[in-house]
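task queued by scheduler; priority normal; single chain, no ligands, no partner chains; default sampling; output format set to C-alpha cells
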Amino acid sequence: MTANEDQEMELEALRSIYEGDECFKEISPVSFQFRIGELEDTKAFILDITWPETYPETAPTMSLDAFFNNRISADTKQQILSKLEEQVEANLGTAMMYTLFEWAKENQEALMENHKPVVTAVTLTSSSDVMTTASTAKKKEKKEQLTKAQKRRIISRTDNKGELPRGWNWVDVIKKTNRKRHDSKLSEESSITAHLRLEAAKAFSDFHEYETIGDSPKLLRSMEELNGDDEDEEERARKDKRCVHEDTETDSGTYLSVRSNRDDVDDKLPVADFFCGTTTDDGQRKEDALSVTEEKRFLVYICGGYKDTVAERSALMENVYPRLYLYCKQRGYEFSMVDLRLGVGTPIAEHHDTVELHVENLQRCQKTQGPNLIVFVGQKYEVRSLPSTIPREAFEAIVRVVERDQQMSRDEPVKDLPASGSRSSITTDSRSGSFIQDSIYRNYLNFGEQATDSGLLSQSSHSSFSEAEEARLSPVGVKSQGDLDKDLTLLQMWYKLDENCLPPVYRLLPISSHHPGMLSVDRECRRRAGKDWSAACHTLWRVLQRSVGEALGQEEASLLLRTVLDWELEAGLKSVGDAPPEEHCHCYKRLIPDLNHNLKSEHISQYADLLKGKAQLDPVLTKAHQKFMERLHKKLRHTNIYERNVGWGRRGLNPKHNHSHQFYTERISSHFQMTVINSLNKVMKVTRTRGHFDRVRREAVRVQIQEEIQRHVNHGLHLWKGCTLRQTFLADVKRAVEQSRTRPILLLGPPGWGKSTIMAAVAQLAPSWVPGAVKVLVHFTGVTGESRNIRLVLQSLCVQLAEAYCPHTQLSESLPQLINEFHSLLGLVGAERPLVVLLDGLDELSEEHGADLSWISTPLPPNVHLLLSATTDSPCTQTLQSARPTVLSLPPLSPDDITAALKTKLWTDQRRLQEQQWHLLVQACLGCPCPLYLATAYSESKLWTSYSPQASLSLPASLEGLYLSMLARLERELGKQLELMDLLAKDEKVLQEVTSCYSSSSHPRIPYVLWARLKRNLGCHLTEVRTDGTWVYRWTHSKLTHVCINRYLKTDDSRMALHADYADYYRAKSQHAHIFQPLAWTLDEEGEGMTKSYRFNLRKLRGLPFHLVHSGQILPLLSECMFNYEFLLHKAWGLSVLDIEEDLNKAVLPDKELEDVKVLLGALEMSRAVLLQDPCQLASQLAGRLGQMIIEDRPVAKGDRLKFSYLHALLAQCMQSTLTVLLPSSTFLLPPGGLQHTPLAGHMTNVTALGGGHRGPLGVTSESDGSLRFWDLEHRRIIRSLDPVGGVVGDSITLSLDDRMLIIHMGQSLQVREVESGRVVYSESDSVDVPVVTTTCDGQLLVVFYDGSHRVKVFDLASSCSLLHHVNISMEREAIHRDRSILLSNNSIKDYVLFAYRSGGEAAVFSARVGSVLCVLSAQHGAASMQAVEMTEDYLLLFCRYPYKRDGEIVHIELFSTVSFLYLRSILGCSQDYISQVTVNQAGTHAVAFCPCPCTGITELVTWDLETEDHKHIARFPAVLTRGLCFDLRFCLGICSGQKYLHLWDLTSRITDQTLTYNIHKLRSDGTQEVIPMGKTPRYAVCRSIRAGTVYVWNLSRRRFVCRPVRVEHGLYGSTDVVLARDFKLYILTDRSSKGSRFQTLLVYDLIKRSYVRRQTGITVIPCLQHEYRLLEEGRTLLGLSETRGQLILWDLDSGSIKHEIKPSQRESSVCISSTVQDLQADVTAHRETIVMPWDIRTESQSAKMRRLEREAQREKEAMRRLEREKYNCIEQYLLSGDEQVVVCSYFAHHLNVFSVVSQEHVHTLEDKPSQLSLHTAAMTHTGSYLVLTHYNHDQRTPYITLWDLHKGTVRKRLRNEAGVCCVAITDNADRVVFGVTGTNRLKVWDPTQRTYRSISGYGNLSIDISSKVYVTEGGAKAILLSGQLSLWDLEACTVLSVLSMDAHVRCMMPLHGRETCVLLGLSHSPALISVRSTFSTVSSETPASTDRDLFGESSSSEEEEGS
C-alpha cells in the first residue's frame, strides 16, 4: 500500500472518529489542529500537525506556534514536542494520529507539569498611557504591511468553534467609544469602586434624612453604582451608554429603551459578592463567584393586523409552534410564541393600555436571544388609536384650536380638513425611517404612568355607525356650531387633568367611567357600551386628527396619532446589544394581486381599507400604508422581508376551505420554521451527551443544583437592591453574629415584615462583620419548587460546603445521610475561612419528610454562623426553639422610615399625591407598619389620579384586607376567575364568560392577552421563576398565597377539584400531548460515543403524583405512576429514586394496605444505591428481585385472587422497556422482605476502623485521614469528632474505662487517647509485631497481645496507662503465627481474657492482674480450628470449625464453665457459617456473629440462643464486611473496605422470628461451578454445582421453569472425580488408583433416563485439571494432556485406550538428530558485554573486528539454542476452537504450536523471538482461523496485540503500545478485536481490516481487572463485559447500552451464540441459572429453540402460553 493510500485511509478514519468534535479541526487533507484540554483549562494547548508526502513512513511535522499557545513558555513547548516525537518514533510506519492525540490527552498533566503562564495579555491603561505607548511603539518597530486580501482573511479567520476570535471588532468599539465622551471614564472606574461603596453606605445610613425629592438622585445613583460594581466592563459600558441616551437628546428610536416602572420579574440581576461564597479579598471573590445562570429560553413576538393576518398567525400557532417547542425542548431550551392578537376580535381595553401591554411583552421577548419579532403585513392599514395621556401643554393647545374654531364658527363657516384627514396627519416623514418622530413627547414615552398609551379605535368601528351618525361625524363640509360644541364637550369629558403625574398630563378616562355597562356581566349591555364607546372614540379621533396638526405641528400630530403596529415596530426594529435588527427580526409581506377585482366581496373589509358605502379603496389610508411599508424597508433589510403572493378566495383567505390557501399557509409555516431554527442554532449551546447514562445523570444533577444555587443568589441580589430600611436592626443582627458563636440566630416577624430582605442584606454585609475569607451560603425557601423540599435544601447546602471545604468527596442524596454529612462538613470549617449560612422562610417548607428541622442543633462548630428566619407563632418556630437560638424580632417601621420610603418611591416614579391622598397613604402605612404593606399600598396608590373622588379611595388597615381589596378590583376589571390558560379552558364558566366577551374565539382556549393583562395588573405581586426545568409563575409573597387560597379555595372539595384539574392537565391525551406533556423530550445524538439525549419533564414527574394524591385519586396514582414502569424510569432518572419512595409513602388507601406498595418500596430501598448511580437499571433490578415472587404468585384455585394486584403489570412493562436493558430471567438478587440495613453517612473519606462503647449504643469510627467520629446509634447521627494525632490511622479501635479512653491500633503502632480532651496518654510504634488489644476489669486494664510472638502487656488505664505486666506466655500446642492469628474475647469477667490461636485447637484464660495463664481449654476434636472466642458470665465460648459429612464443614460452639473451666456442651451451627466477628449480649443469652463470604460477596448476620440452642440467619448483606459489632441484641454495625458508609441493622423485630431458624440438616445453598449448554438442544443447559455430585438441568424457554430446574441429581460423583457433560449425558472419570496417577473407570449417566447407561473399566486416563479435558466427536473421544504435559492425548472412550498422541514436529533446521546433550545445554560462562562505539569500530584492528564478529555470532547461536530448548517445554495452556478442529498450545516460550484435531498433526509454529507468548489473554475465532493475543516485545520494550493467521502461520496485523490488556475477544471473521485494559473503565475496539481503532468510555464505577471477561456478539456489533457487573456495549455507536449490577459474585458466564444477545450466568451463592437477554431481544421474537419438544416431562396442556 502506498503512502498516499495510507493517508487517505487514515484521513477517512480521523473524519469518522472526530466528526463533531470541537477539539479537532481539519485545516487541509494533510494538515490538522487538535486542542488538548478544554478552552477554559489553563493547561490546554493546540497542536498543529502536517503530513509530508511519505507519511506514515516518515514523521509528521508538529508545531505549537498557534496564537492559542502564546501563554506557554518556549521551554515547555520544547518539552512537549520532544515527548511527542518519542511517540512518533515508536509508531512510525503505522497510522499514528489517533494514538498521538489520545496519548497527548491522557498525559496532558505530565506534559504541562512545568507550565508557568507567560503574561502576554493586553492590559487596560488610561488614554494618556495608550497615547504614550503608541507613540513609543511607532519609533521602535515597523509593522509588516499586509495586502487587503490578507487582511480580509485574517478578519474572517475563525477558531475551531467557527467563531471569530475575541477582539475582532475592537476597532469598531474604539471608534464608537471615541465618539462618546462619557465612555472615557471606564478605565478609571475600578479606582473609584471603594469610594462608591463608601458613598452608598453613607446614603443608606442617612436615608431617612432625605426630605426633598431633589436630593434623591444622589442616593439612587449611589445604589446603582453599588449594585453594579462587580459587573464586567462591557456591561458597565452598555449601562453608561444607556444613561447617555436617557440624559441627552436621543434619536427617533431610542425612547423605548427606557425601562418601564413595571419591570418584568425575570430581569437579569447584577452579579454580587455573595454568590456561593463571599470573601473580603477581591481575587478570592472572583474565584468563588458562580456565573449567572443562562436564561435558556426563546420568546418570539408575533404581530400583524387584527383581522387581515389571522390565517397566517393561526397557522403558526397551530402547526409550527408545537414543532418548534419540541425542537427547543429536546435541546434543553424553552420556547414560546407571544401573539396578543390571537383569539381577540376587538382590541378595546377598559384602561386603554393595549399599546403599553403590547410593547412591554415585546420588550420582554427582546431580552431573550434568537429571533424575537415576526411581523405579518398585508394590504390593510393598522388600527388607529387614541392617546391615553396627553401632556398638559399639548392638550391645552388642542383645546385652544377647537375653541378658536368654535368662536370662528359663530361668525362665519369654516371649512374643515379633508375627508380622511391630511396625509401628514396620519403619516410620518419617511425620510427619517422612523415610525415615531422625536418631539415634545420624548419625556412621556416611557411606558409607565406617564406613557402616551392609546385607546384603540376598532377596525369594525366604521360599520358600527349608522348612516346618520356617519353623516354627523363626517369631516367633509362645514362643521356647525353645535357640532363644534359637542366636540369640545366630548374632548373635555373623556380627558381629565391628572396632576399626580410629574409633569401633569390629561388622561383618557376608563370606558366604564361614562359607559358602566362595559363591566357588566350581561353580554348585551357590554355590546351596547362598546358601540357607544366606538362612536365616541371615532369622534375623538376625528377631533384630534383635525386639530392636533394645527396646534402642535404635523410631526407631533403623527406621533400623537400613531398605530399599535407603529409602536411595536419602533420598539422591535432596533439593534439588541450589538446585533442589528436583521439578526432577530423577520417580516412576511402578503400581497393579493387580484384584491382590486374583489372589492365587492363581503369579506374584503378584513383585508383592505374601503370608503364607507363604496367598493373603492380609501386613498388616504392606502397611501399611509404605502408610507408605512417604505419605512419598514428602510428599517429592515430586504433579506429579512419575505414577500408572498396568494389569490383571493370565495371567503377571502380561508385555508380550511381553499387548497391553494392551505398550500400558502403551509409554505409560510415551513419557511418560518426553517428561519427560526437557523436563528436558534446560532445561539443555542447544546451540551452533547457523552458516556453512559450514569455519567450523564450525574452531570445533569450537578448542573441542576448549581442552577438552583444561582437562583437563590439572584433572588438575594434582587432583594438587596431594595433594602433601604431598618439600618438599626441590621446593627443588632451584626452584634448578635459577633456574640452568638455557638448558637443559631433566629429572626422572627409576622408575614410581610421584611425578613427575606434582611437576610439578603446580611448575606451581603456578612463579609464585613466576620473576620477572614468568609463563605456565605444563602437559601430562600419558596423561591423555587425545589427550595421547599428539606432534602433538596440540605443537598444544595452540602454541595456548596463540599466545593469549599472538601472538593473531591462524594455526597449522598437521602435525608438522614445528608444530615450527617452536613454536620461533618461544618466541622471542616476553619478560622481562616469562616462560614455564614442563611436559611430564610423555614416555615414554608413542604410536607415531604415532615419538614424535619431536627438537624438544626447546638452547639454549632467553631467559625460557623447560622441565621434562620421564620414567621412568628408558626409551628416551625416552636420546633426551632429546641436549638436554643438567639431570637431577634423584627421591629415595626418607624414613621420616619415610612415617610422617607414613600417620598423616594414617588420621586422615582415621577409622581405626587394630593394632600388628602398623601395623608390617607401615610396613615394606612402607619397603621400597618410593615414593608410589604407599604409596598402594596403604594402600588395601589399609583392607580389614584388627582381627580379621583376621595370617597372612592380607601386602604384597608390590614395586609390581608389590602390584598382582598386588590383582588376585588381585578375581579371587577378582568373577571372573577384567576386560573391559567389550559386550566381555565377546563372551567366551563370561565370559557363561557370569555367567549361572550371575545366572540371571535374559535377554539376552546383562553386568549393570551387576557393572561398578559392579568399579569401586568398584578405587577410585582406575581413572580416568574424557573422551577423543574421550566418557567412558572408564583405569588411573590406567601401571604398573598394564603389570601388567594382562602378566597378562591375555601373548601376541601374546591382544593381537591383544583388538584384534579392539574392532574388532568398532565394526563391530557390530546393531539400534542407527546410534545407538551411527555415524560421526557428525547433527541438522537449523532456522532461516535453519543447517546440519546433526554430532557425530562420534571414538572410532570413531580406534579402528577402530587396532584393525584391531593385530589384523592390514589388508584390512578398507583396505576399511572407508581406501577407504571416508564413513569418510574423517567422519575428515577430525571429526579431520583428517593422521589419515588416519597411518592410511594403517600400512596395510602383508606380501607386497606396494599402489599404491592410494601414490596415495591422494599425492592427500591434494597436497590437504592444502584439506582442512584444508574437509574436505567430499574427494570433489571425489579426483575432481579421480584421475578420469582411474581412467577410464583398464581391462584391456587380458579377464581382465587392474586396476592399482588399491580406488580404483574409492572414486571410485564419492564420487559417492554424503551431503553435497552439487560433483563434476567428470574430472581438473582436478594428479594425484599428481609431485615434491611440503614446506611449511615458522615465520613468524607473511607472508613478504616470500627469500635463500640460500653455505655449504650455508642460507636466510634476512624477515617482514612485519621479523624475519629463518635456515633449515637439510637438517633443515627454523629455526636462528636476528634482530629488525628501523630498521623495514626486506626486499623482497630477500642473504647474503655466507661468510654473515657480510646485505644487506636495501626499496624505496629498503638495509641491511647482521652476522649474528652483528645490528649494522647500513651503511644508506641517500635514494636516488630502487630499489637492486638482488649480490655478487662470493666475497661480499667488494657491487655495487649502481640501477633507474631508470645508477648503480652497489661496497662492500668486508670493510672495514666502505667505498665503492670510484660510477660511471655506459652501454650501446649505450638502456634503458627500468621496475619491475625490471635483471637481475643471482647467481653471480660473479673480480670479474665480468653484468647486462642487460629491454627491451634485450644484456647486459654489469661489473668490480667496476675499476668499469667490460668487454664487451657482444648477443643473436643483434634481436627478443630478456632474461628472466634468470647465469654459471658456463665460460659467460655469457643467457636470451632470441624469437617462435616462429605467435603463440608460445620461450626460448633463449645461451652466451658467460667468457674471450673470444664467442658459443658456444644451447640451446632450450620455449614453456611463463615465466622468473622462475634459479640455476646450483656445478659449472656445470645451470641451474634458476622459471616462474610469472599467467594460469594455476601455477609450474613447469624445468632445463637445459648440456652435453647436456637440458630437463626437474621439478615443478608450484599457485600463483604471487614468489621462488625453488635450492641446488646439491638443494633449491629458494620463497615466495608473502601467505603465511607456505615451499615446499621436493628435486630429488635427479628431476634424472635422463628421462621429464620436454621438447623444442621438444612441443605447448603451452593453456587454453580460450570454451565454447559446443550448444543443440539439449545433450550436446555446443564449446570455443575460447586458441591460435588450435584447437577441441575434447566429449561431456558419455559417461563414456568425459570425459577426451578427440570431435573436435579445428587451424589453422582466425588470431589476427586472429573465430570464432563455432553448431549444430556455425564461422563464421569473416577476410581483413581492408590497412587492417584490414573483414572481407571468411566461412568456415563443419562440425565433423561436418570440412570447409568455405561460403565467402562480398565481405562488409563491421565489426571489433569477439570478444564483441561474436552469431549470431542459427540462424546466418543476425550482430549487431554500427557503425563509430562509435553503433548496432547486423544483417548478413545469406547475402548478406553489412547487413540492418538499429537506431538509438535521438529524441523531439521531446528533440531539435529546427532546433537548431544551438551550442544543443547546453556553456556553458563559469564561474559562481560562491552559497548562498542561507532568511533571504536572505525579504529579497531582486523583481529579485534574478527573477535567482535565471533562474539556476536556466538550470542546469536546461544539465542537460537535457547529458542530450540524451549521447544521441549511442557504445555502451559491450550485453546480449542469452537468447532473443535484446531488446538493452540503455549509453552512458557517464545512460540506457540498449532495442531489440527482432524488430521492430528502439528500444523504451524507461531514464533516471535523478542516476545514470550502466552494464552492467558488470548482469543480464537470459532473456526480456528485466527488467534489474537497480547505479548511484550523485549527488544522494543513495547506491548503488542497481535492477530495471527493460523492457516498460514503468519502475523496478519499488529497493534502496538497497548499495555495492561487483561481480557480480549474476537469476531468469527477476525474483522474486529475488543479488549479491556487493567484499571480503566474503557473498552477498546480494533478493526484490523479497516485499520481503525476506538476507545469507548464505560460507566462510572467500572474497573476492568484480570478477572474480567469480554465476549462479542451479533457479528461484532455488540460486546458483553463481565467485570463485577454485567454490561452490554454497542461497538458501532461506541456507547454502553445497559449495565446489570449484582448482589453476589458471578461464578461463571456462558454466552449463547446466535442473533440475540443472551448469556447464561452461574451464581456463586445460588444454584439458579439466570439467562440474561436485552430488551430488544426479548421483544423481537420468540427463540427458535422454544419450538423444540420438552424432554423432561415439563409440558402441560393446561399451562399458559410460554415466552422466551
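post-processing summary
- The first strand starts at residue 24 and ends at 28.
- The CA atoms of residues 66 and 1991 lie 73 Å apart.
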